[in-house]
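Lecture 7 notes: from sequence to structure.
We start with the chain below.
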Amino acid sequence: MKVFASILALATTAAAFAPNSVHRSETRLAAAIDEAFGVTVETGNKCTPLGARLLEDSQDGALEWFQNAEIKHGRIAMLATVGYMNQKFGVHFPLYLGPTGSNSFSPGSDDAWFLSTTEGITFTDIANAATPMDAVAMIPGAGLLQILFAAGIFEATAYNRQYNQEGRVPGDYGYDPLGFTKVEGGLESPKLRKLRIKEIKNGRLAMLAIAGWAASDAIPGSLPVWHP
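Predicted structure tokens for the same chain:
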């Protein structure tokens, strides 16, 4: 009986302390999220409720992982919006100085270069696609696999540099051929911190934009505002 009473007393004591410990842990996590780089005035200088919920029971390093994911997707979305607008406006970049696409506004050519000889798809066909989504749909499966393979190489390199090399801030993958970050204080200098915030905000806007444009292409009229 005494043993049972002792066990019950210990269990009661542990239960009494557990909620406070959990509450303190959640409070520290919430404070860390609200102070994270990228949380700005648009959301009242606090993490959004959905973001806080996703990180509620996360492991160490989860916040950094999400920051990296947001920056990567933002960069890709910014490139996607530029490419989408160029396709929509009929502007095409030179194709290796070859015949098709060499003229920015007249991509057609009598000597068309083939994207796929087996399927008979030329770069002129891609350039003349009605919408950017139609152009993507015309890419053969082998071409999509090549894109996926190239993206995988970039992702593996970025992962290695971000997580296996200590001291890097989210989004820093060691690629800076023009030397923009080679200033006093590096990425933590006041000037570059402002630029990093601008990059995150522009990336967020680009992700919303390209999602809306793609949805409008897939479901005409689903985006009830003007867009390219």
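Points to note: Helices lie at 2-34, 49-54, 62-89, 123-127, 132-137, 141-163, 190-218. The two ends are 79 Å apart (CA to CA).
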